[in-house]
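thread: overnight batch results

M.L. [08:02]
morning all. the overnight job finished for the chain we discussed friday. pasting input first so we're all looking at the same thing
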Amino acid sequence: MAVKRETENVNAGAGAFRPAHYDLELWKEAMRLAVATLRLTAEFPPDERFGLSSQLRRSAVSVPSNIAEGAARGSRAELLRFLLIARGSLAELDTQLWLAREVGLAGDIADLQDRIHRVFGLLNGLMKSRNATTRPKR
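M.L. [08:03]
and the structure it wrote out:
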């Protein structure tokens, strides 16, 4: 995978700065999802460039970006905040993919749906492992 090769290249330098999110399987899977989404939208007609294509791209890029930012913040509360934002972007991406399929812009989205479900699972697992709650206690 291109994402794996690129992170290996970044990590190859001895003593080089290595962000914490490089070690997160969640971030790696979210990057794979973003790349797959960008490739899908590259096949959309030009008149969709500023419509659904743009929305899909923004949502897809937002997921790994927010995971990385949360991991870099240094506190559990900040990590949780950015993981929640990433989860919201993932839900947007899921909805937008279904819309793209329904209007005929995308055919089989099963692979992307599988990736979305994997990322949701990894996101929820990381949130739970950090003893983070996703809803306010009453």
